[in-house]
Amino acid sequence: MKNRILNYRKQMDSLLGQKNAETDWEKVLEEHLVQVAFFQHERLIHLIVTVTFAVLLIICFGILILSDFMPILGLIGLLFVLLVPYIRHYYTLENEVQRMYEQYDKILKQLNTNDK
Fold first, then answer.
1. How many Å apart are CA 16 and CA 111, to the nearest integer?
2. 3-class DSSP state of 19
3. Is 76:64 a contact under the CB 8 Å cutoff?
4. pLDDT of residue 115
C-alpha cells in the first residue's frame, strides 16, 4: 500500500506539473476523489489497528507493573515490535493523504482556470 500511495501521488504531481491544456481536469478530479476515498479508508483501518495495539501494550505494561507477571514481557516485546511498523505505516498514510488534499486544491484551481 505504501508504494501504491507514493506512486499515485508522484503521478499526480507530474500531471499537475505539466498543466497540459488538453487534460480533462473534470475526469482527473473525479478519479482523484476516488483514490482519496480509498486511501482514507486504508488510513482509518490502520488507525484502528495502531490504536488497538497501543492500548494492548499499555494494558500489558499495567499487568506487569501491578502483578510482576514476568512471562508477559514476551507479549510486551511482540506488541512493541508490531506497533513500531504500524506507526510508521500510519504516518506515511496520514502524510500522503494530506498531500493528496493539496493536490485536490490544485486540481480545482486548474479546473477553474480552464473554465475562464
1. 11
2. coil
3. yes
4. 64
